[in-house]
Amino acid sequence: MFEELFNLAFMNLMRARARLAMTAGGVLVGTASVILLIALTIGLQEAAEAGVGSSGTLTEVPVYNYGPSDVIRPLMNNAVIKAFYKIDGVAAVIPTISLQGGMLMVGKYSGYATILGVEPALLKYFQLPAQDGQLEIGKDQIVCGAGIQDNFYDPKSTDYQPVKVDLLKQPIKLELSTADGVRRLPLAVSGVFAMGSSNYDYACFMPMTQVIKLNEEILGQPTDWANFQYEQVIIRTTGREATDHVVSEVRKMGYQPGGIGDFLNQINGLFSTMRLMLGGMGSVALLVAAFGVANTMTMAILERTREIGLMKAIGASDNHILTIFLLEAAMVGLCGGFGGVGVSLLLQRLVNQAVANMPVSQNGSSVSFLPVDPAMLKNGLIIIPPELMLFALCLAVGIALAAGLYPSLRAARLQPVTALKTE
Q: How distant is the alpha carbon of residue 72 from its chain centre?
């Protein structure tokens, strides 16, 4: 029975193709507006997140051994490290210790660097891209940020001038002021990680056990293991989505997590608001199209009043008539929805190609009117995920059905005798 009603509704629409095209055109415009405006916010959001930091930065939660003064928290020791590992969404926990002094020496030049002690097996979780060499550490072996090698200087010179050194090719020593005097420890730089890829451009990593021993020499006293705690712990989460939960759990333990998670939440909140506002503006076009659907359905009833009476006279029920006209309304919405999806995909391709082919100025930057750097638009300015197309299609059909409901009920309630008398 439903198949027969569907075929009848389809044939009725084909009898007025021009009217169908104009009515579906209004739905097409509304559907395309909703898709493109929401897709624009998705593209801008991805670009903004890319500008905030790399994927590694978004999953990195630094935790410090301080927090609110009125909160009692345990020492950040190995027991706390194990507790961090139990938090859902944690991929790795990397404790660090800072060297309490020291200066890098390359020949007659000196250079400052933050030297951090880490477990060699955990170094990979910093996700540092290698610029030169291998990012591996062992005894008397370090890896350094690329920014360090550009900031050496001659301590005997009265005029400070930064000097660039090659940490991989030139011998390097670590000068320490210990309780027994000045000590120079020869080091081997195994690798240099790329500049601007992390927060450690001016840091070096050494094995943690060696940093602890060097601190004992500098301070002139053994490590107090009863009160020992790490200065900082880096928590690497399983993904950006898990970072919020991890930050919340760390705060409950009394610590103050850092990173850009809160800032990223503010960005996401801003774009969510923009998505609602622009999606609402696009929906206005669909609302206007709904009046066109209602008008088309009302005209169809007026033109086919005798036909409705004849159908009822030969046994069609009110539900049959209602189903036929609702199917016609749904088909109008479906045609307009599919058309809107198609137009949106076409415009997406054209706009993204235009953005990708934007001219470049002499200094290498893109000439753009966009609020974000076009280089950050890796997936394009307009991004249409499959779920957005499905949502817009369902919205178009739903609005068409809502618009056609009253005319359909009106058609279903016509009395056969009255309908047959209509000229």
A: 35
Distance CA 114, CA 370 (A): 38
Q: Say how many C-beta atoms besides its own lie within 10 A of residue 349's C-beta.
A: 12
The rounded mean pLDDT for the chain is 82
- Please choose, from the candidates 165, 164, 113, the residue with its C-alpha nearest in 3D space to the C-alpha of residue 142: 113
Instruction: Please report which confidence band the pLDDT of residue 275 belongs to, taking 50, 70 and 90 as the band edges.
Output: confident
Residue 6, C-beta contacts closer than 8 angstroms, at least 6 positions apart: 327
Contacts of 83 by beta carbon, 8 Å cutoff, 6+ apart: 253
Dist. CA 355–CA 37, nearest whole Å = 17
Environment class of 39 (CB within 10 Å of its CB; exposed 0-12, middle 13-18, buried 19+): buried
What lies within 8 Å, CB to CB, of 108 at 6+ separation is: 154, 155, 156
Handedness of CA 280, 285, 287, 288 (dihedral sign): positive
Digit-coded pLDDT (tens) for 189-244: 999 988 876 678 889 999 999 999 999 988 888 988 888 889 889 999 888 778 88
Q: pTM value?
A: 0.58
Q: How many angstroms separate the CA atoms of 253 and 329, rounded? A: 57
Spatial CA neighbour of 192 closest among 138, 163, 149, 139: 149
Query: Do 322 and 401 meet the contact criterion of CB atoms below 8 Å apart?
Result: no
3-state secondary structure the chain: CHHHHHHHHHHHHHCCHHHHHHHHHHHHHHHHHHHHHHHHHHHHHHHHHHHHCCHHHHCEEEEECCCCCCCCCCCCCHHHHHHHHCCCCEEEEEEEEECCCCEEEECCEEECCEEEEECHHHHHHHCCCEEEECCCCCCCEEEEECCHHHCEECCCCCCCCCECCCCCCCCEEEEEEECCEEEEEEEEEEEEECCCCCCCCCEEEEEHHHHHHHHHHHHCCCCCCCCCCCCEEEEEECCHHHHHHHHHHHHHCCCEECCCHHHHHHHHHHHHHHHHHHHHHHHHHHHHHHHHHHHHHHHHHHHCHHHHHHHHHCCCCHHHHHHHHHHHHHHHHHHHHHHHHHHHHHHHHHHHHHHHCCCECCCCCECCCCCCCHHHCCCCCCCCCHHHHHHHHHHHHHHHHHHHHHHHHHHHCCCHHHHHHCC
From residue 197, alpha-carbon distances to 55, 122, 201, 413 in Å are 10, 18, 8, 70
- State the pLDDT confidence band at 329, using cuts at 50, 70 and 90: confident
